[in-house]
Records
---
Amino acid sequence: MIAVGDTAPEFTAPLANGDVAEVSLSEAVADGPVVLAFFPGAFTSVCSHEMESFDDRLGEFADAGVTVYGVSIDTPFAQNAFREELELEFDLISDTERDIVDAYDIAMDFTALGVHNLAKRAVFVVDEDRTVTYAWVTDDPGVEPDYDEVIEAAQGA
């Protein structure tokens, strides 16, 4: 699993930004540090609350010069519908091939539901050099990150 001090794995993936574009990590961090907030799936209660919580605090991230991205295995089209429903002001990264989830070693299964290789709920802060400065991962999809802690880490990135 990716830890503080590691180089964040590079990726290029579809970006749900109201339209569908493409983003790479190296391009994203060229504008400053980023928060990668991985979540298991769009349109679920805990994931919706988490993304809304990040959205409610976007001003604090912006003041720190940090860009927030949500990351899930959902298609960019589903993510755009999710963004619209929740009125999210930040973009979502689509990892339908699970390349990012695998690179960050945060895959989990909901075997009882027949759903495999989803993203664990996880948050990484990555600085301009692609160094991970904060890492939080939970095995319990019902647990959300400590948002104050994430903001503090972002401010220090």
---
Amino acid sequence: MQFHPGHTYHLYNQGNNRQKLFFEQDNYRYFLEKVRKELLPYCDILAWCLMPNHFHFLITIHEDYVHENAAQNNGKMVNPLNRKIGTLQSSYTKAINNRYGRSGSLFRQKTKAKCILDQERGKMDTAVNCFFYIHQNPLKAGLVTKMEDWAFSSFKDYSGLRNGDLCNIDLAKDLFKLPDEPGDFYKLSSQTIPDEVVSRLY
């Protein structure tokens, strides 16, 4: 994965052989604590959703991020987010294996990051659709009948039902021109995203 300052990415992975990643509610919360610790120093999270066997994050990389094409100075680690994503998943796997008496890998070997918005080639409509697609995941999977019934996504925060602070809500609202009124946001979030659009998010 190659991350660049100011670019927006759809970050995702799933369980090895599509197995479960999260077995009970405490697992979801523990994973989010690790996300806060490992990822937030390098990016703003615009949307997220944890599903039983996979996860999605929409992230924008901080402008001061040091990437491979940048000059290395002051001993800064180049592309540290790559390493932190690995740390996030390996430490979570170790904790789950210890807790449930299991062994072996939990996640698929490669986490994917699709750049969907940058200063040159990115399309805003693709990024907006990714934002809504992430929130629609539990509904599409039949886990809930209403998006707000799934506790482990940022939908509740944007719809005014929870005061979560993992996402940079102000940045997302400004970037995607999201409505402040919860009813308007819900209506916009419920629009169907065509399959050909979804295919561009991966």
---
Amino acid sequence: MTDLIILRHGPTAWNAAGRIQGSVDEPLSDAGRVRVATWRLPADAPAYRWVASPKRRAWETAQLLGLAPEPEPRLVEMNWGDWEGRLLDELRASGALTAERERLGLDFHAPGGESPRDVQNRLKPWLAEIAVDGRPTGAVAHNGVMRALYALATGWDMVAKPAHRLTDGCFHRFRIAADGTPSVVAMNVPMVGE
């Protein structure tokens, strides 16, 4: 079993506005940089091999935390296709985002975008590589990636409410079995410094 710590990047201006970022390469906002400066990683974090999504918001978060990660393209956020840059409320109001569509769970996707199952399929080889490598690994990624990983670990179908809501400003610990299968160790561990 190999340990994996994963956390979401700090806030961006698009996060604050409620815009869907997906593959758009937004940097952290000034407020996001201030927030990340208050975060503290667990005491064992320096012993981990660190990777990060190459998107600016994840990469900058890693650097602000004093990490020197390797880029891992399979950790980029879920592609939201035609809906990137849009507001969820606008999509619901326009009828583009319906309850029926959301009930697709793991197979939900925006026009021209990826589904959470697609994200899982790109994560599985990465998780298998972590298992083979055997080194504890830390990752700075995105909400969609973490949700897909959590669904893999728990069997969550992304239709019902999850047992754990993923909270920003926290890290999540998983164990990766020899075959690359993740399991939950601890969710929503706060990173706020004292």
---
Amino acid sequence: MPDDTILQDLRTPEAIESGSMAIIDAEVPEPRPFAGNEWVVVRRMIHATADFELLDLVRFHPQAVAAALAALSQGGLVLTDTEMARAGLPLRRFDPLGCRVECLMNDPDVQRRAREQGSTRATVAVDVAAERFDNLRNAILLVGNAPTALLRILERCREGSIAPALVLGMPVGFVNAAESKALLVEQSPAPYITITGRKGGSALAAAALNALAQIALDTRAAGSGKE
């Protein structure tokens, strides 16, 4: 390490996180492209990736934040397309809200039907979830990996056979990732948060939802008079 390197004396997780957020705020001075709770979400996504290009790529449906907070505060289901995303949504945030986090990618019925249909597990998981969880009413659907899952969600939303509260559509990659997210912005009847282009991933989608869950928790604590 060069002799002129200056390290910040931040040792606790809380201090490191607070210091990171302060750096992001300082490097993105006002007026920012996002304000209020949208900025809280985007800042958390930047914190997860150190990628300031997200400032130009994130897109919010006008009702996205309000719809997400309503679903979270009512204990809505969260459905993810990867176990990685589910692992990134800690129980300490979602249990107090009464929210159940599910991923059906390894479900035996999903695996069997995917083989029989010659389809992807991600596609079939959307259909199985709709059958099991009341047509996904008031659910938050988090897609961080599979464009096929996002395309199936859009198809079923347009049919009116599912009615999610929010689609967090952030598949990453080169085959239909950018295209599926463009269709989400153009066609989704449900509120959404997405990232244009090829970037995305489970960590980013989980970061966005964690930010929303923390807002919901803070709002509940403020309403009950808790610090």
